[in-house]
Design goal:
Elements (H helix, E strand, L loop, with lengths): L8 H6 L7 H13 L11 H8 L3 H13 L3 E4 L3 E4 L4 H24 L3 H19 L3 H19 L2 H20 L4 H4 L2 H12 L3 H17 L12 H5 L1
Antiparallel strand pairs: 1-2
Helix pairs in contact: 2-4, 3-4, 5-7, 5-8, 5-11, 6-7, 6-10, 7-8, 10-11
Length: 237
Amino acid sequence: MAPSNKTSPKQKAASPKREMSVDEIVENISNAILEHRLVPGTKLGEDRLAAIYGTNRPRIREVLARLSHEQVVELVPQRGAFVAKPTVEQAREVFEARRLIEPGVLERLSQNFDEEKLRRLQEHLGKEEEARRTNDKHAVVRLSGEFHTLLAELAGNSLLARSMKELSTLTCLTISLYDAPTANSCRVDEHSAIVDAIRAGDLALARKLMLRHLQHIEDSLDLNSESEEVDLESVLG
């Protein structure tokens, strides 16, 4: 009888785990940071990350370089890589930049708004609402930031979208570092009100709501708080 070519369950279980790509590792770490599972100031040791992801240090260096370019990670000579830790001054600059940029995002979006863009925004709002309903606090934080990035993407300007992604990331880091109460700092009803104003063609109201929303987030910050250390393996492993 010819030998069977079928793989047994034990052989399947013993097969080596597929090595993650640089893009996948970048996304994995970024999500952990955006969801506040990795707090600002956390050291990202190359050896520990290589062990967690089952890869080599050159690949991890490439990952950290990408994250540094995106301002998510800070590379400190002779010390290593750390999750970015915005200062109070930087935090205020982030909100100043957002107050200048986001009304322009809304204006551009309103000029080419259509049913497909409305559908994508409503779909995102649904994800936010579901995350809150299930009390998935990590997803709430990530999705709240992604809402603003999505607005810029739908506006159709790649430079605006890139800027908003960086600003949203820095905002998430700021909220994590300065301990803003997530449930109050970025409420889903504020996002839905902005979408309703865009849908109604009321650009002035949409801008007003966005500026009020950003001020609400900034006012919720506790600029005297400090974050605690976390265990990399438990978060990323």
